[in-house]
Design a protein that fits this description.
The chain contains 12 helices and 17 strands. It is of the alpha/beta class. The chain folds into 3 domains: 170 residues, MoaB/Mog-like domain (Molybdenum Cofactor Biosythetic Enzyme, Chain A, 3-Layer(aba) Sandwich), CATH 3.40.980; 77 residues, 2-Layer Sandwich (Alpha-Beta Plaits); 115 residues, Maf protein (Alpha-Beta Complex).
Length: 375
C-alpha cells in the first residue's frame, strides 16, 4: 500500500499572506492514483526545520512531495533542505541551468547570477524540466522513498505534476488502484446523532466512512480503494444505500450539491416562487436566495408581519424569514406556505460569529423538509 506525505514550504503561508491551494490539489491527485495520504504539513523558510520534516516524512511514507522554496533567492531553501535530509551535498547541473537560461530568454532577458541557485539540486537527484516557469524540479530516490520537489506557484506545480510526476510515480510504485470518494451532505441532525446511527460503518476498512461537521451541515464521506472506477463505485453504492436507509431525509445532497441549491430546485420543480426576509444575518441569506430583503432589528412578531407583507406584495407561494439575536444566541424562523403559517425558535451553543450561518442553514433545511412534506 503506497503512502505519501505533503510538505508545503513558505513563511508567507504561515503568516496568512497567501492561501495554500497546492495541498488540496496534490491530495486529490494522489487519491485518484490510489495513494494513501498520511499527513500534510506547512514549514516556514528554514532549512533545518524543512530538512527535519522531510526526514521524518521519509520514515513514515514512501512518497514525500514538497512544494515551494525553489526560487532564486536566499529564502528559497528547499534544495539545501532536501540534500540535508538525505545526507548529500547540492551540485550544480549545467542542463538545469540551460533550462533556466532558455526560459528567461523567452522574455527577452538574461538571467542574473543569483538565478544560478535554481540549477543546484541534491547530488544524484533526477532533474525535471519545468517548461512553464524558471524553477527546475527534481526527484531524490532512496531504496524506499521518492522525494519530489515541485514549484510553489500553483499553475507551475500542476503542470509539472501531471506532465512528469504522475507518470514517474505510476511506474516507480506500480500504481494500479484508485481511491474514489463520495460525500453525502446531511442537515437536521447533529454529528453525534449521525454517529450513533452509522457507528458500525465507520469501523470498516474498505470502503471507509467518516464524518465532518460544518455549521449546520454534516458530511458523511465514503471512500473506496479499488482497481478501477466501476469497482470503486459499486463498493461505495453498497455503503451509501445503508447510510441513506438509516438517515433518511436528512441526506439532502451529494458531492458538489449545496443546501440552498437543492432547496431552490425543489421549489422550482413545483412551479412555486419564494420570497425571504433576513434580519441580523449580514446579508448571507440574501447572497444565497434571490428576492431576499435585509431588514434591521426585527423581533419575532415584526418578522412574521414583514413576511406576510412581502409574500402578498410579491405574490410568492412561499415566504421564509430568519432573524438572529446575538445577545442570547438565538434565532427566530418564520414560514408561510399555501397551508398556513408556522414559526420556530432555536438556540445556539457554538461560537457567536457562526450564529448567522448556522441559523441560515437550519432555516434552509427547515424549508426543504417542509416542501417535501407538502407533497
Amino acid at each position: 500500500m503506497t503512502s505519501a506525505e505533503i510538505i508545503t514550504i513558505g513563511t508567507e503561508i504561515l503568516l496568512g499572506e497567501i492561501v495554500d491551494t497546492n495541498t488540496r490539489y496534490i491530495a486529490r491527485t494522489l487519491r485518484s492514483m490510489g495513494v494513501d495520504l498520511y499527513r500534510t504539513i506547512t514549514i516556514g523558510d528554514n532549512t533545518d526545520r524543512i530538512a527535519s520534516a522531510i526526514h521524518n516524512s521519509m520514515e513514515r511514507a514512501d512518497i514525500v512531495i514538497t512544494t515551494g522554496g525553489l526560487g532564486p533567492t536566499v529564502d528559497d531553501p528547499t534544495r539545501e533542505a532536501v540534500a540535508q535530509a538525505v545526507g548529500v551535498e547540492t551540485e550544480f547541473r549545467e542542463d538545469l541551468w540551460q533550462q533556466v537560461v532558455e526560459t528567461i530568454g523567452r522574455y527577452g532577458r538574461t538571467p542574473s547570477e543569483n538565478q544560478k541557485r535554481q540549477a543546484y539540486v541534491p547530488k544524484g537527484a533526477i532533474g525535471i524540466k519545468n517548461p512553464v516557469g524558471t524553477a527546475p524540479c527534481f526527484i531524490v530516490e532512496t531504496n524506499r522513498n521518492a522525494v519530489i520537489s515541485l514549484p510553489g506557484v500553483p499553475s507551475e506545480m500542476e503542470h509539472v505534476l501531471h506532465e512528469s510526476m504522475i507518470p514517474y510515480l505510476q511506474k516507480r510504485f506500480n500504481l494500479n488502484e484508485i481511491i474514489k470518494v463520495r460525500v453525502l451532505h446531511c442537515a437536521g441532525l447533529g454529528e453525534g446523532m449521525i454517529d450513533e446511527k452509522i457507528a458500525d460503518l465507520e469501523k470498516l476498512s474498505n470502503p471507509t466512512v467518516g464524518l465532518a461537521a460544518h455549521t449546520g451541515v454534516v458530511d458523511v464521506r465514503i471512500a473506496a480503494k479499488a482497481k478501477n472506477e466501476n469497482e470503486a463505485n459499486a463498493m461505495i453504492a453498497v455503503i451509501e444505500a445503508q447510510v441513506r436507509e438509516r438517515l433518511g431525509k436528512i441526506v439532502f445532497g451529494v458531492d458538489e450539491d449545496k443546501l440552498e441549491e437543492v432547496t431552490l430546485d425543489l421549489i422550482a420543480k413545483r412551479g412555486w416562487t419564494l420570497t425571504a426576509i433576513e434580519s441580523g444575518l449580514d446579508g448571507i441569506l440574501a447572497r444565497k436566495i434571490p428576492h431576499t430583503a435585509s431588514l434591521p432589528n426585527l423581533d419575532p412578531d415584526q418578522l412574521l408581519e414583514a413576511l406576510r407583507t412581502a409574500r402578498t406584495d410579491s405574490k410568492a407561494d412561499i415566504a421564509l424569514g430568519v432573524s438572529v439575536y446575538a445577545e442570547d444566541r438565538s434565532a427566530e424562523m418564520s414560514m408561510i406556505t399555501p397551508r398556513g403559517e408556522k414559526t420556530h425558535r432555536i438556540t445556539y451553543g457554538g461560537p457567536p460569529r457562526s450564529l448567522p450561518k448556522w441559523a441560515m442553514n437550519l432555516a434552509l433545511n427547515w424549508l426543504r423538509m417542509t416542501i417535501e412534506e407538502l407533497d
